[in-house]
What we know:
alpha/beta; elongated; 268 residues; six-stranded mixed sheet; 12% strand; 7 helices
Amino acid sequence: MFARLKEDIRCVMERDPAARNAFEVLTCYPGLHAILFHRLNHWLWQHRLRWLARFLGMIARWLTGIEIHPGARIGRRFFIDHGMGVVIGETAEIGDDCTIYHGVTLGGTSWEKGKRHPTLEDNVVVGAGAKILGPIRIGAGSRIGSNAVVVKDVPPGVTMVGVPARQAVPRSDKQRQREAVAERIGFQAYGATKDMADPIVNAINALLDHIHLTDKRLEEMCRAIRQLGGQVSEGEHKGLDPCNFAGLNGNGSSGSTESAQDEQPNQR
């Protein structure tokens, strides 16, 4: 028992740079307290002392803010950082060396008996506020981003982000092209990534694609005009400046006409 406790304290020290010593971890980390309670409760659950297991689980929830059903199966070196608001369902299974943060839910999507909660394989990290729902499997070494909602199986070693969660991928050539166009016209598409299921982002991406295509056609036209002996300006496009739109009223014109009249010379 003491060897297992030392292992738990050591894993906290390795994963949390704020942990200064073993005594601090043992006395001030509710995630560790919740795990210790769960081991007792799970032993009671397996020996059919289920009311007592549930009652002690409720006490642990009051003390730590972490709700772990006594029936959940949890591996070694499991670390719950901060912990407040964590919910782990009855049929959840967690492998070795997993880490989850506050606000995480390993929940079910059905009222039917049997397996209805997720399975986390070894070395999974779940970010704050993420929701993993249903009898799905999260592959070993996977990462679940903060506030992601995962409802399908996750392959090993990938990162899932968004609502619903999608596999994060490196920026494609298309995305880099969009960013270059956006930067040239003076627009920064913050968070406009391919994986975001946002209609506004999709619309912005479509506009950037259209601008890129239009630029290519204009370059071809200018090249053809030069070949025919015509002259085409080589001036560069200036970026958009929000200050250019300051002072416009709802009709798109300047707010006051008096200042414009004052600037005109007296024609009398």
